[in-house]
Amino acid sequence: MSGRHSKHDLERTPDDDILRDLEKRWDDAPSRVLRWRKDQDVHDLDCDGTPGWDGDRDDGERLVAARAAELSELQERLFADGRTGGNRSVLLVLQGLDTSGKGGIVRHVVGLVDPQGVAHRAFGVPTPEEAAHGYLWRIRNALPQPGYLGVFDRSHYEQVLVVRVDGLEPEETWRAHYDEINAFEAEIAAAGTAIVKVALMVSRDEQKARLRERLERPDKYWKYNPGDLKTRARFGDYLDAYQEAFERTSTDVAPWHVVPADKKWFARLAVTELVLDALRSFDLGWPPAGFDVEEQLRLLDETG
Length: 304
Ligand code: ATP
What we know:
Number of domains: 1
Shape: globular
Number of strands: 5
Distance between the termini: 50 Å
CATH superfamily: P-loop containing nucleotide triphosphate hydrolases
Mean pLDDT: 94
Low-confidence stretches: 1-7
Strand order of the largest sheet: 2-3-1-4-5
Number of helices: 13
Bound molecules: adenosine-5'-triphosphate
Structural class: alpha/beta
Order of helices and strands: HHHEHEHHEHHEHHHEHH
Strand content: 5-15%
CATH architecture: 3-Layer(aba) Sandwich
């Protein structure tokens, strides 16, 4: 695996040997294996697969844990960069059908870094105020400021997913969104945001098992929404909508990553690696002092 820091090497930790051993379980970089390919058909995806990874669940969970130090330090460097005039940020866009595990990604992956530097936003049915504006209005308002790791739980893509499947706009209207979204993402990428788009793909059978669990466990009732069954009934239509979204909006500046999500541990591992790649791509050091260090040390000593 590539991506260690040449210019600003991170401190070695005791976990490093374990980490080097575990990362060999990837037979190719996750950003390559999981990236949407033009010839891919999402209807044929093995949602229970672990493409590129030949370790087991225990290895996967240990690698996520071992990545925490680097993830957290790079996020802190990003935050420091933003505080000192840098323009960079990361935007993790999470899409997926009900029960695909978006919330788990936020808890288990995004939760590895300092919450101070995270800007999380979940997008539900537009409020009357949001609906009074164009669909990108609420998205623009929620974009991460420089220095932040932004996380979108659902996103502007709902405008070509639920809006298409439920017929909430005429076809010519939602079809125009693909180009609009590409232009929008190119604009924010050019302004310094690394966009990591992840679609968590759960199979129909696994979705049923997860919905059943929500109905069988009182501690999960709160996650169950009777409306999820209506969405489930359109499972195939959603796959069609995802397929076309990938075909039309996977671009060089903002490619889609299609992540099999029946194994929650694999999805979490994959997203950890993708976010880490985005942070590494900035190759950030620590910002230099904006003051005279020697002078400040002298003044500090004088304070007694
Ligand atoms: P989740 O299933 O993501 O955990 P939830 O079930 O708690 O969320 P909410 O967060 O209230 O529900 O809203 C999610 C719902 O909002 C989804 O059904 C989604 O399709 C819908 N939604 C999101 N964006 C739009 C949009 N632009 N137009 C219509 N519906 C939308």
